[in-house]
Amino acid sequence: MFALSLDSIAFTLGPLTVHWYGIILGAAALVGLLLVVREGKRFGLSQDFFMDLVLLGVPSAIIGARLYFVAFKWDEYNDNWLDIFKIWNGGIAIYGALIGAFICGYFYARRKGYSFLRIADICAPGLLVGQLIGRWGNFVNQEAYGGPVEESFLRDTLHLPNWIVNQMSIEGIFHHPTFLYESLWNLVGLGLLLFLRRRPFLRVGELLMSYFIWYSIGRFFIEGLRTDSLAFQGPSWFASLVDGLWSPMTAVFQAGYLDPEYGNVRISQVVSLLLIIGAVAFIVIRRKTGAAKERYADPIISFKTGLPAGIVVQDAGDEAEAGVNRNADKDKGSKKE
Fold first, then answer.
1. In terms of pLDDT, which residue wins out, 17 or 325?
2. How far is Cα 133 from Cα 127, in angstroms, rounded to an integer?
3. Which residues form the signal peptide (predicted)?
4. pLDDT per position as a tens digit, 57-86
5. Three-class SS string for the chain?
6. I need a labelling partner for 65 at 20 to 30 A (CA). Which of 17, 134, 212, 269 fits?
7. Which pLDDT belongs to residue 327?
8. What are the sequence ranges of the domains in the chain?
9. Are 164 and 136 in contact (CB under 8 A)?
10. pLDDT of residue 321
11. Which whole-number Å values give the CA distances from 112 to 99, 115, 250, 310, 317, in the listed order?
12. Is 135 annotated as belonging to a binding site?
């Protein structure tokens, strides 16, 4: 069957070429921002607070994602440094993006006088919705796909529409739409996070940890289907351990090919396992030691002013005047009695 794939270029304006990859990433950031702004208003955080965070965080995430990818693919870039900047051709790593975004977010939150964990909790669903949309950029670029499959598997088993099936034909061979698997996994995870953040038992930092746990579980198993994984050469016992943890997938899927000369352990799978273990330990230890006293639903207090977010004291004179007015109101009340 003739497969017509999508053009990665959306349009051109003279010398300017606009790629679908960039448009999709921009849309992902916008939808994530809208979700975060809406939740932030519940805690008195302004839209400008998150707008500034995005303006700083998105470039930081892109830089982190690209550096992470290039670091593990250095042999492909050391002779042509200009290719490092061609992110429209793909080649960014989600975990690198998270590292860049979280470093930026930490310093931004601290500079504004707020706990990083409080801000990160609010942003977690926005990150997940951004990832579920952003994966469609990989779809357009025909990258981050899985191992070969029969066309009938895509059409008859998964019942995918023609425009997805056709795009999964790379050089005449059909592949697992791992971008779609991860996007749907993140969609379910988004619903879970939106549910959890309204539960009274949720403590500060635990929504962020839930994001790490959910995303990493999905990424661990989906990564095993891919044929373009970043990898390293690890000890045979460790490679066997990772393969053993992934083995339940063999009941339905076949693992994607990993060139043994390139590596025997997929980096994203190792990072996923570390994040799952670390996130679970974070929740358990803080609960056991009593450090998790503050709840997600509690007001966000600025450590600079000691006041809840959204309440601004311009100077000491205003604060003193406010105190005088409060005392005057009390005196009036006592006279009336």
1. 17
2. 10
3. none
4. 989 988 988 888 888 777 777 777 777 777
5. CCCCCCCCEEEEECCEEEEHHHHHHHHHHHHHHHHHHHHHHCCCCCHHHHHHHHHHHHHHHHHHHHHHHHHHCHHHHCCCHHHHHCHHHCCCCHHHHHHHHHHHHHHHHHHHCCCHHHHHHHHHHHHHHHHHHHHHHHHHHCCCCECECCHHHHHHHCCCCHHHHHHCEECCEEECCHHHHHHHHHHHHHHHHHHHCCCCCCECCHHHHHHHHHHHHHHHHHHCCECCCCEECCCHHHHHHHHHHHHHHHHCCCCCCCCCCCCCEEHHHHHHHHHHHHHHHHHHHHHHHCCCCCECCCCCECCCCCCECCCCCCCHHHHHHHHHHHHHHHHHHHHHC
6. 17
7. 47
8. 9-304
9. no
10. 44
11. 20, 9, 49, 12, 22
12. yes
Q: Which two tokens stand for residue 106?
A: 């930490």
- High-pLDDT (> 70) share of the chain, %: 89
CA pair distance 166, 244, nearest whole angstrom: 33
The token pair that represents 62 in the structure block: 């892109």
Q: Name which of 118-127, 199-208, 259-268 the model is least confident about.
A: 259-268
- Max Cα distance, the chain (Å): 90
Contacts for 310 with CB less than 8 Å, ≥ 6 apart: 43, 44, 45, 46
Cβ atoms 92, 65 nearer than 8 A: yes
